[in-house]
């Protein structure tokens, strides 16, 4: 089978990482991948071992020429299937290009925000199938009127061989402490997400005074990048939290960073599923997060972590205080989180799930 994947993101996280894992799995099974991506995007380099990479200008929703460029590429590649992995611009232009050339098209939906009814009625008939990465996202689509037989849930995956718990070696934590300027005995808590409002950084900042009153050796590390970074740094300074809230930037070595964390926190207002949460769980790190989107499909309260209501800073602080004060509980949650990922979020199950969708669509088309 020949599949043309379309991903317009600049950076290699979230959906782009999932697309690479899928292409790798498909290639291992003997299928042929092609990738259309934005010129200079990080995914192009990451996918080169698993796909023929075609870099194109992609300028978002208003760039009608994206439709023409993708249509020309479809004519050139002659794929059996077009799989759209991104939203901005390519979810519509890519679908129209595939339809123009009579090629089946599948769209991966990775966010749980609602769309306007007229958008849903117009856009979703363009796709042969929609792959929701969580049951939470699927439920949102169904509530908006997308037919049940058009939407299937295939969970995102994590590379459990790359993201593993550390062996109990002092050198691992010593390296970690040196990277972020921590002292022996500090408790390391990370929020790993883009600096955008819905990820909940400000809620965590609001919770920090209560946490520090009980656990003054707590260090919160913001890992990521995005448009809200400067305002967040200003907020941290205004609250006098510079010594306890650190900005670690975007890291491409999270597989080495995560196992040394004591806790991962994710106070998002909305979240499709949360790839960073899967990675943390795979590393055996307990999680405090919110009951938003697909997060409850990863974080099981009282088993792999704790959940609070989005936007509730006091509840977030209470959950953090509890876990930071109980090392055996963190260890127990972390072990359970690792097993939860191994059982339900393997790369193999994600690849097979998408392949099943492809085969169903092709069978309906008589191919």
UniProtKB/TrEMBL annotation:
Q: What is this protein called?
A: Glycosyltransferase
Gene Ontology molecular function: glycosyltransferase activity
Q: Which residues form the Glycosyl transferase family domain?
A: 179-340
Statement: the UniProt record of this protein carries the keyword Glycosyltransferase: yes
Give the EC number(s) listed in the UniProt record: 2.4.-.-
Q: Which UniProt keywords apply?
A: Glycosyltransferase, Transferase
Q: Per the database record, which ranges form the Glycosyltransferase subfamily 4-like N-terminal domain?
A: 16-162
* Top-level taxon of the source organism: Bacteria
